[in-house]
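Here is an idea for our session: we take a single protein and study its fold together. Once you have written the record down, we can walk along the chain together.
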Amino acid sequence: MEWYPLAFEPIIKKVLWGGSALAEFKQMNFDSRRAGESWEISAVKDHVSVLENGPLRGKTLEELIRIDPEGLLGSKVLERYGEEFPLLIKWIDTAADLSIQVHPDDAFARAQGQRFGKTELWYVVRAGSESGLIAGFNKELSREEYLRRIADDSIEEVLLRHPVRAGDVFMMPPGRVHSIGKDILLAEIQQSSDITYRIYDFGRKDDRGNTRPLHTELAAQCLDYKLYSEYKTSYPKLLNQAVELNRNKYFRVNRLELKAQTPLLEIERNPAAGKSFIAYMCIEGALELHCSNGSYGRLSRGRTLLIPAAAGSCRLQCKESALVLEIVADC
């Protein structure tokens, strides 16, 4: 199979808290009202990505994997996950605060009949001057205090709030209480899971006047009640080289801020060496990706490309400037 950079049709999710910025950010024409999420690469059941470019256009991600599992996924990904795509990659845009929630780890998720838990990373793309998010508690809690505060509606008093701006990075391991605040656009990289336990939803109702279900007891079994010294990820902002934002047992995320100082900047990238696919999310600017097998793709703001493992190393070409996230399944 002669693989090439794969672009998928975005799966746009309309949600209660959704914003209105995704169409402009992605430079696409669709109704962006309450469009809270754009799933860029997904193998989640009933939400499987469909290819929009090249000779394989129209095939789903699952069909593409079956054509050549190792060629697309990479040798180590195939060894660890079989023919399952292990990540979910998306953009999120908020007009209101998300619910207060927590995600389970793999073991707990499997006990509930799910394949994966959820570890995720947030990269803030845009934020309002008053925007913030929740990550962790502001003191160490017990399970008993958590349940009492849910019962008496005082849980917000013990949530740790963080002001945010563009470029901020937060890692959300399983068990960490969290919420994205209003007026934030961010990239989210996570395990291939749509499992969430909702703790608190501010009493909101949907268009039919219904409140959303809460998962108080399930969350109580998953929550990490400890207090940590740091929640936001620190990293150096370097030009024209990869900066690692996080490496965990599920994925690696690198940040590449590119600025051409001559008519054309070229950077060679081979972070997976055939062991994994690579995904690139473009936050600013535009660039081209030329693979060692002779294929190439174009990437602009708000778009995402999946580079199959068999496409080989990539040469990133930038004529002006670009900011991208580079994602590899860590195996």
In short: The first helix runs from residue 22 to 26. The chain is about 15% helix and 35% strand. The helical segments are 22-26, 61-67, 69-73, 75-81, 106-111, 143-151, 216-222.
